[in-house]
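Progress against Task 2.4 (sequence-to-structure conversion) is shown through the following example record, which the project officer requested during the mid-term review.
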Amino acid sequence: MSNMNRLKPMSSTSLALGMALSLGAVILPPAQAQDLDPNATEVLQFMSDYLADLDTFSVNSDIDFEVIATNGQKLQFSSYASVLLNRPNGLHVRRQGPLADVDILFNGSQITVFGRRINAYVQQAFTGTVDEAILAVEADTGIPFPGADLLFSNPYEVLMEGVTSSQYLGTGYIDGVEVHHLAFREDDVDWQIWVRTGDVPLPMKYVISTKWVTGSPQYETRLRDWNTNPSVSQNAFTFTVPTGARQLEALPPSQLEDFQEAE
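Structure tokens generated for the chain above:
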């Protein structure tokens, strides 16, 4: 599933904003449904439709992801992200982790990736939608947007790509809020999502398990502080160059990755 590959926290690749920023829309193949629980897919579709109908929203997330050290020990790293989205072409993501402290901005005509710790930025002209900007940045930098599947204009289509089975596991509670618990399987990963019950079906938690890697490392994001009608300033998505900031062709990997290889 391509969106799961995008979310793997273990990826590391070149970080220049270049060819991928010329990408257009990507057409996703239909899900290969073999054993789908209609209760699970119905809740997921309800959530997707609700998110797609929001012109603007903001959300914060706490992210935990696991890596397997060369000595076999499983380690967990934690990071934070905030997102402000304004369809069709406004996006501002802030990522803070053990190493990374970056802003990613898109205003419909330009993408900027700003490394706060080194006061340097990469910038590229790009015309398109939020969907296209997310795909372009991820393809070129290898940096997963936090919960990126949920930011697309049709989350259901993206999430269901490659799904072979699903299951509705009843209800539970996250931060005192009742949620539907859904589980899905693909060839390479299993994933679960917890969706708020009632008429406001916001996603509250999202977990991806990589099945065929030793130790089955997981990626988990807890989504909180949802605001479906935030106040958005006119320049919220346009980068203002800070005093003394340098423009680079690429940001060093150490400024963008959330962890270092562990022995």
